[in-house]
Amino acid sequence: MYNLELTINKLAGYNVRAMRVLIYGGGSVGLGIASCLLKCGVDVDIIARDYTVRCLRSEGLSRIGIFGDYYAGPESFGSYCLLSEIEGRKYDYILVCTKSFDSQAAAQELSQRKLLFHRNTKIVLFQNGWGNAEIFASFFDTVRIYNARVITGFHRPKPNEVTITVHADSIHIGSLFGNELSSVESLCDSIANGDIPCEITADIEKDLWAKMLYNCALNPLGAIVDVPYGALAENEFTRSLMNAVVREAFSVMTEAGYSTHWQSAADFLKAFYDKLVPDTAEHKSSTLQDILAGKRTEIDALNGAVIKLAGKYQMAVPYNNAIYSIIKFLEIKQSA
């Protein structure tokens, strides 16, 4: 493990620089991953909004929840509002933890800060939805770009505090572009040593589409009817809607040449109701949290991405269209 090797080298008197990671996006996911890295000695800097940065600088970072409590004092990491505030530092990994609708702006801003990168710097996208890697590939060589699949529930009750509420499976990190995986192994080890299971995978496309099917069914519908995921699965009417959303999305995925871990929508739905929903039954939709806060949701990278892909193949997806339209209405209504 990376952290063990680092400790041995330090004890032996070698001058070893700690792994250096930039967390771009100090929301709940960004702070949750940062807590893991800090716990095992990684050199971490965080880019976040002004109020979050002020809280991190004055109070440090706290993590509570199912993986135990951890606290990092404000002196143990860097926190900044702007990339321009960072001078003379190059990172081994840049973890993009923004909402999917910020991918374009994030990729553009990072591409203009070349001094943050050395030759082997990797960008890892800890984001929901489909299409984020494609956006980053328009700004960076694909050899730098990796994706993370996260199905752990993070909640941020305070700007500098994250609660881990549910966990369905290990974080998976891999490449949609066929990149070698050994270069992200030390990152996975560090996250895992910091308490959240994490591993490399050669099947990240399948993982991301599995999460797409899961999110497209649960996330928007949970926001519309304001119940946790388990309640959606227990009701025959919401269950029928989710079945239809999944069948449409699975057909579009297959037509577009992508795949997941199940051969059919029926196979996925069995695992969905038997395993995936029960593991996250108490979780409430992040889309609901965004709507209640008057914020933009990630619906464009979820059901919206299915609709966009369906359009390329002239496929009808009426259930996804209906769900998408209702969320768009709620976005506008809540922010008005």
3D architecture notes:
It is a single chain. Helix content is 46%, strand content 18%. Strands 5-2-1-6-7-8-11-12 form an eight-stranded mixed beta sheet. It has a four-stranded mixed beta sheet with strand order 4-3-10-9, with helices on one face. The longest helix has 22 residues, at 204-225. Strand 7 (117-125), helix 5 (132-137) and strand 8 (145-149) form a beta-alpha-beta unit. Helix 9 (236-255) packs across helix 12 (303-312) and helix 12 (303-312) crosses helix 13 (318-335). The protein folds into two domains: 2-202, Rossmann fold (3-Layer(aba) Sandwich); 206-335, Orthogonal Bundle (N-(1-d-carboxylethyl)-l-norvaline Dehydrogenase, domain 2). Residues 1-15 have low confidence and may be disordered. The protein has helices at residues 2-11, 28-39, 50-59, 103-111, 132-137, 185-193, 204-225, 229-234, 236-255, 265-279, 286-292, 303-312, 318-335, and strands at residues 20-24, 43-47, 61-65, 70-72, 78-80, 91-96, 117-125, 145-149, 152-158, 161-167, 171-174, 198-200. It has 336 residues and is of the alpha/beta class. The chain contains 13 helices and twelve strands.
